[in-house]
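Appendix B. Extra example for self-study. Work through it before the problem class; the solution is given directly after the inputs so you can check yourself.
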Amino acid sequence: MSVIYGLIPGMILLGLVSVLVFFWAVRSGQYDDMEGPAHRILDDDDMNDGDSPKS
Amino acid sequence: MDGHTHRFCCSSCLTVCQAIHEAGLAGFYERVQRREAEIAPPPDMPVDIDQYDLDEVQQEFVTCHGGSRREAMLLIEGIHCAACIWLIENALHALTGIELAEVNLARQRLRIVWDDSRQSLSAIMRRLAAVGYAALPYNQEMAEGQIQRYNRRVLFRMGFAAFGALNIMWISIALYAGAFSGISSEYQSFFHWVSFAIATPVLLYSGGPFLTGAWRGIRQMKLTMDLPIAIGALATYGYSLWQMLHGYTQVYFDTVVVFLCVILIGRYLETLARRNATSASLRLMELQPRMATRLIGQSEERVAVRKLHVNERVLVRAGERIPVDGEVLDGASHVDESLLTGEPMPIAKQKGDEVVAGAVNMDAPLMIRVRQTGNATTLAQIIHLVEKAQESKARVQRLADRIVPWFVAVTLMLSLLTFAFWYQQDMDTALLAAAAVLIITCPCALGLATPMAIAVSSGLGASEGVLIRNAEALERLSDINHVVFDKTGTLTEGRMKVVSFRSMRDDMDDISLLQLAASLERHSPHPLARAICELAESQGLTNQPVETLEVIMGQGVGGCVGGHQVWLGNLRLMKEKRVAFIDTYEEESRRIQQGMGIAVWLAVDGQVVGMIHLQDRLREGAAEVVEHLRKKGIGMTLLTGDSRQAAEAIRQQLGEMAIVTDVSPAEKAEAVQQLSQQGKKVLMVGDGVNDAPALALADIAIAMGSGADLSMQSSDVVLMGSDICKVLYAIELGRQTLETVRQNLQISLLYNMLLVPAAMGAFVTPVFAAIAMPVSSLLVIGNAILIRQRMRRRD
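Solution. Structure tokens for the complete assembly:
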């Protein structure tokens, strides 16, 4: 059973990695607009040069 | 090390400097301050906060109200609950020279009016910093960045708490399973330590804002919503720690973590919902294009809209939004102004027509000369009105704001009572029940009840072309029982057309009569004047110079043309000016009025020389509105500066209503006042300069959008289009809003009344409490958003 002394810190470490990935995702703006990208992919080409997509 | 000494030195230096300053030796202070500021600025404050006192800097975001009264919009970072509003407003009102400080929770903004001679803006911002809020002058781009940063921070904290909650739950399962099937104390204490290792960073990082908020509140001797949350979390955490260190088994680290996680999820959902609820006015803002095509000679260039100047030329291609208010120089196209006025039909525009920023150019390029830019455009003014409405507070809300600190105090008391009661039984139950009470009571729902409903309604109204200027208007709209209509321009189209003009003297032909009339009326915004001038312009007539121009409201104009005293106006003016009048004229006047027309008489040197016949017709939908109001049992009065016959003509078409005729603007106001003295709640619908006093006196006033600016100023609701049916929409909107506010208050009271006793009776765990609390806030927000559905169902 002493294996849990290694496994549990390992689990937490893996969890921390996923937290870091999440932080990166937030920081790179992936959660800023939950709807826009879904629509943006459908408007494939820009209609005219005036309307650049909002970042 | 070096930097450390410096900073220490500086802050103590600063203290000394301030002491010197207070002693009146400001010159020395300034010199030292400037030198020190270069080396090490005060750490917790932006260095350039003083710049906001400079007029050049203030120009961008401050409006001067004459004298030293100034108004500004500040974006406040760190607001999360109604208690914060209370804290900020009270902290500011304690300063001298503050006239008004109003915080908007949904938009996280502070509207402040202060006396610049007695208080500087930088001092206000410092005061805000001292109580723990970062203030920045508001402009749109910055607001977006700020909201985004706040959302991200909540997301970070929520993500970390979620990680902690998910992991600590596995440990808890192991511990619970162990409690049933037996577990060696070695593993048990290991699991406890792991829980501790997870809970501590979650408490410090994810729970950080609550802890600092509560601490700040204690230091300021003000009770904020963070306090119960912080006490709940800390007490549970501390108790678990004590249990663990003494080798006991009642450890609740998992409760702390899950509770924080759930509260943060609630906060995040709240920010999303808030953003949604107010998006209608944001959408208006997005109408403002950022870039425009400027024409210089024959060449084009893309520039930012704010770099455009008056009288420059701009090219708007088909499909683009018009960036500025202006006049069409070249091209003909249709323009869609539906988002501004709510009118669905595109409007034809050609050379010489005016266009407004935010409208979409539909089918052909237009060349436009810039008339107004930036904050002076109609769109910017509309946005300003909407924002003001969303930020102004209804009476109900002020009450809610005052209640919050008491609410928190009562919560603390109740939880203490709960603890004392259950402590007689055992420590565990006592602690958990007390924590649940702390967490479950939620003044947030109470604080959000009104502002959310108002934000949603004014946003919704704006998208329909009904601008609500203040929150109280919505409240009062719902209980009106008498409507006063202005005739011209309100029930009728107000777009008078000249039907005929005729000279009555031989020495003057018809055309020169028109020319004379147009010269007098050339600067008047009155609809009759505009109709006459339009016709004159279309005939290519030039204006004659007029001296000593005099405008008599509700009657007409007068002036000196070529040495002759000329009067132009209605019968009353003629009588007042003792113009020789024949009975047949009077009869003719009456005949025209019976057909809803207007006769305007022109007199030169006391002799009538001619008459212009103008005709108006009922607005589309006017009959419907009157019919609907009558069904509801709402009384109606028609006010007009015109004669009885004209009013009778309207009454014949619209059915029974009281009529008051031949009234001057002052008499109109009197008539409105009389009605309200009879105990009636009067809604006045009007437009034009001559309605302004009456509008101001009515309990609530609606101005039709095509009206003059003056009437917009003195009204509570502005209809952007000319659709009179929107009056009904506004009344319904007010009714729905008040209804929703009542429901919201009931929801939050019911919630607290049901769940607080449950928590005191130890029926509720802290984790359930943490779920219930944000749910109550979300219920209130959701109910407010439902106003949209309810209004749609009505159509």
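Self-check: The first helix of chain B runs from residue 2 to 22. If your reasoning did not lead you there, revisit section 3.
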